[in-house]
Amino acid sequence: MMKNQIRKIATVLALGSLGVLAGCGGGDDDIGQIIGTSAPQYRTVHANPFIQNVDFGVNGTVKIANVGFKSVSNYFGIDSGSAVATVASAGTSAPLASASFSPANGHRYTALAIVAATGTATSLSIIDDPYNKSILSDKARVRTFNASYNANNVDVYVTAPNADITTLSPTMGGAAYGSASPVSTQDSIYLDGGTYQVSVTTAGTKNVIFASQPFSLANNADWLITTLPAGGLGAVTPNAIRVLVAQANGASQTASELPSK
Length: 261
What we know:
The chain is mainly beta. Helices cover about 10% and strands about 45% of the residues.
């Protein structure tokens, strides 16, 4: 880890002396993330369709207040070291769920409030993204998260539109409920910008339970593709899902559902 960080710092210094840092697709915050010197960055996602607005906190302090379902916050800095993340009903102090984690400099963290496996409570999951992107890379970073308690483990294919997935391996495979692929603490996958389609299948099969319309994935994009249960509480059927995409563009965040085919 230390050797990797020293190599990246040396690359930054070399590029800076050549005056080319401005052209490599990131500002000072991105460079700090890449070389592991900036404070841990943290964002929140309300991914539980069965509860009202919530507050997200860190170490007893509300950081994101009164946000509704499918809301994604901007990244913001938090202290490194031991931390406890919480989610509570908006304006209340008793957490619906909490999670302990250890933020590290240079890493990005996503806290997702999701439906508990029973479908009647809330869980809080944390993704630790080490953000190992090369300084010179302009590829998009992509990860998936399975927040669909009504689906089994899922495979996610990010392919050319209308591609035949029967001969393809999953782009991100075996995401269990409440877990990411690549798993937390591993880096996101990297894709060239272009036009793609997302297909979600039951893990280990070619049984498609969601297929999106074609979409554009830009270079330097940062996507979290999250599966969500479709329908209201009590009306959710097995494998009925929708897909929410959280997109990071610098400090700014947007969230939108991928239209299905």
